[in-house]
Amino acid sequence: MHLTPEEEALLPSPEDVALYRQRGWFRSKRVLPEALLDHALTGIQRHFSGERDWILPPTSGFSDWKPGDGNTVRNAEVVALQNEEVRTLALHPILGAIAARLTGSPTIRYFADTLVDKPGMLPENESVVGWHTDRAYWGTCTSDSLLTMWIPFQDCTIEMGPLLYVDGSHLWPGTEDLRTFRCKDLHELERKFSDHAPIAKIPMTLRRGELSVHHCRLIHGSGPNTSATPRLALAVHLQDAGNRYRLYHNDKGIPWHIFLDDLAPKREDGFPDYTDPRVFSVLWQQPLT
Question: Could you give the 3-state DSSP secondary structure of residue 135?
Fold first, then answer.
């Protein structure tokens, strides 16, 4: 969990932390070395070809594109729990150190990850990801400080449909219920935000080796990949020290359930333990002083 002096110099400054809390997002310098990304890319290719280093106990309930699913957007979740090379990237200490700076938490744990491969030139809006917040899908979490790191594996141009952030929207009320990930009409959803005008949409046109970070309540999505180049990126979801499982009911009174609850070891009360390192590994632990 130690960083080199060169890596320490790449961490967010106090000014960056203040802006993150104001905007709900952060864009890093080039913090990820080429060799680390290449190593992970090898693992991604193996995963998409059907290879698994570890088999998860639940075989359904989460996205996991496999050969034969067709030429569409490839989504795969918790790849770091199934593939060794992707795990090396997802648990890299610099990700934890960045998250610790931004959240002020002494401990950062892995929560989940999502791999998204957008082929170029798909029909119409097939590769659009609708406006949503991650918090809306994490009702069983007690913390409002969870965050996501978005890591592209190539330079990401505007034509490739990069991640779009709605600047400052993590401070808006009501975003904890925005579960419109699969809604392809971005303009229709934007009209729902008209009382927050003007809306500033910030595209993450990152260079390879850079990453972006967004707050769990920040509204985000992405447009279609209109280029001829696939857009491959890994989103690593991280939790702060204070996050725990809570029993949460939806608007119909039904207990909320996420597939991670089937993976998580159980606490003494029988509920999932989001702190157990067998699933939720520690990326960063603040040294004792």
Answer: helix
* Buried-exposed string 103-118: b where 16+ CB fall within 10 A, e elsewhere: bebebbbbbbbbbbbb
Beta bridge partners of 207: none
Rounded CA separation 3/18 (Å): 23
Alpha helix positions (H), 104-227: 186-191
Instruction: Answer for the pair 245, 271: CB distance below 8 angstroms, yes or no.
Output: yes
Task: For residue range 101-124, list pLDDT tens digits in order.
Answer: 999 999 999 999 999 999 888 876
The SS3 of residue 175 is helix
Closest CA relative to residue 111, chosen from 148, 82, 75: 148
Numbers of helices and strands, H then E, in the chain = 7, 11
Q: What is this structure's pTM?
A: 0.94
In angstroms, the Cα distances linking 126 to 35, 170, 184 are 32, 27, 8
The conformational region for residue 12 under phi > 0 = left, psi -120 to 50 = alpha, else beta, is: beta
Q: Distance (Å, rounded) from C-alpha 244 to C-alpha 157?
A: 37
d(CA 57, CA 162): 33
Rounded Cα–Cα distance for residues 282 and 277 (Å): 7
Q: What is the pLDDT of residue 174?
A: 79
> Cα(8)–Cα(11) distance, rounded to whole angstroms?
6
* C-alpha 148 chain-centroid distance: 4
Taking the CA atoms of residue 238, residue 93, residue 264 and residue 179 in that order, the dihedral angle to the nearest 10 degrees is: 20
Read off the pLDDT of residues 5-64 as tens digits, 9 standing for 90 and up: 999 999 999 999 999 999 999 999 999 999 999 999 999 999 999 999 999 987 778 999
Backbone angles phi, psi at 282, to 5 degrees: -85, 125
